[in-house]
User: What shape does this take?
Amino acid sequence: MKTLSLLRHAHAEKHSDDGSDFTRRLDARGLEEAVEIADWAKRLGLGPERLIASPALRTRMTARAVTEALALADSQVNFDHRVYEASRPTLTDLLTELPAHLQHVLLVGHNPGLTKLVRWLTDDDSVGELTPATFVSLSMDIDDWTFVGRGLASVVRRLTPTHR
Assistant: This one.
């Protein structure tokens, strides 16, 4: 049994100071959402063995709140450039590369890739869009990440911040 948790970055500024999408920061609302998500993660006792995130600034900021709340070691956190603006197949490839001993992985990224990944893994197109700061936890009855595939996951939990 594997658990895949997904977290879309919290609300971000529309534009960065340098005009780059990659350097957009969380806005005031996003900072509140990141803290709320981190509090949930701690209260729920989430214990991912690995956190994989896009290296974009807004995603780093969201991931930092969670890693601090869960006291994850630096060795448990990986910023992977493939997650930034990733398609569903790219995210799937990344998952299939994970070591088999990992039971719970948290992926922090962007849309539309995350929403498409959840819909593909659950084989459910009615799954709503992952709005900013939405957290979804999926359960997959597989022993090895190489077996990740369409329709093998079910939604265990979905949380959306109250700061809307």
